[in-house]
Automatic annotation (TrEMBL):
The lineage of its organism: Eukaryota, Viridiplantae, Streptophyta, Embryophyta, Tracheophyta. Chlorophyll b binds at R64. The light-harvesting complex (LHC) functions as a light receptor, it captures and delivers excitation energy to photosystems with which it is closely associated. It is a multi-pass membrane protein. GO terms for molecular function: chlorophyll binding; metal ion binding. This is Chlorophyll a-b binding protein, chloroplastic. One of its GO terms (biological process) is photosynthesis, light harvesting in photosystem I. Belongs to the light-harvesting chlorophyll a/b-binding (LHC) protein family. GO terms for cellular component: chloroplast thylakoid membrane; photosystem I; photosystem II. Chlorophyll a binds at E59, H62, K173, E174, N177, R179, Q191, H206.
Amino acid sequence: ATKSSLSTVCEPLGPDRPVWFPGTAPPPWLDGSLPGDFGFDPLGFGSEPESLRWFAQAELMHGRWAMLAAAGILVPEILHKWGFMEEFSWYTAGEREYFADPLTLFVTQVALMGWVEGRRWMDYLNPGSVDIEPRFPNRKNPTPDVGYPGGLWFDWGNWGRGSPEPVMVLRTKEIKNGRLAMLAFVGFWFQAVYTGQGPLDNLSAHLADPGHCNIFSVRSRTHMVGYLTLHCQYGLLL
């Protein structure tokens, strides 16, 4: 494919591609054509082509949501520590008062997300069927891969078009960061439940006294889960 191509489809990688454990042979249905494919599917969930296609899209979307969630948890806590905003806990955000009542906000969110998810679902069933700029209905975007809409709103830098190699690198980075964010979000949630503190507070406590504030010196359930997830925070912040 060239930069003028209408679509960029990642090609299968060679037999010397990296795998999740050195020396292991990836299953035949994982040929390296999917971003983030390191040949790990011990239970054979992706052995059916349609299941593999579905799981790949599910992981992609959950990873993107998790990256947004992790940023939405960390940024307010950072801004609070810097004195730019009042204390705001993501875990208790639903208890705060907003410009509208909770039912109105819920219905509005369902309507907006329903429209977006409906378009994404139709694009999954019939790729390219909804790939039209709303303001320019007579001009279609270049035909994208499912899950990568492209166009002015989603790829203004045109990074997702061109030869397969750099596109595969960028998509693999996205998947790897999404996987890390999903693990980090689970850690953030457990910390909020068991410690009542944010991830940065838990991380600061560990860095201030790593000899005592670590998994091996845990004495109560309150702190155990928080320290178990420190590795997720390190990876996300670095």
